[in-house]
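Need a sequence for this fold. Nothing fancy.
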């Protein structure tokens, strides 16, 4: 895991990925580092809008920026999705254990939640 993705919550990553434009940006950056000016035309949005989306992706630990001459370029952080992947794997493991009977389902908790919800 990179130093930028350490401490990033899975929820922040999911929120960043919830926007289609940011997902497109990640796909474009998968082809190599690029500046906001270079990413703007394929997306059909302004450079400023691209920069704002890149800021969200950066805060989520999914991209990083570096200076290349007079430009600031952005590149994908290969391990940026790790916190979200680990979260998903933990949930999957829990569900699989319940399904195979290795871990009892919290029936009391579920029924209590349903009872209070119906009040």
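Here you go.
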């Amino acid at each position: 895991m990179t130093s930028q993705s350490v401490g990033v919550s899975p929820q922040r990553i999911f929120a960043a990925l919830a926007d289609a434009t940011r997902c497109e940006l990640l796909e474009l950056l998968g082809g190599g580092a690029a500046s906001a000016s270079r990413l703007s035309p394929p997306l059909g949005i302004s450079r400023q809008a691209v920069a704002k989306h890149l800021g969200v992706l950066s805060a989520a630990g999914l991209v990083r920026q570096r200076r290349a001459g007079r430009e600031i370029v952005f590149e994908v952080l290969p391990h940026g999705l790790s916190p979200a992947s680990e979260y998903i794997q933990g949930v999957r493991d829990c569900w699989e254990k319940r399904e195979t009977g290795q871990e009892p389902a919290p029936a009391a908790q579920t029924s209590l939640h349903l009872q209070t919800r119906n009040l």
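For context: The beta strands are 34-35, 63-68, 71-76.
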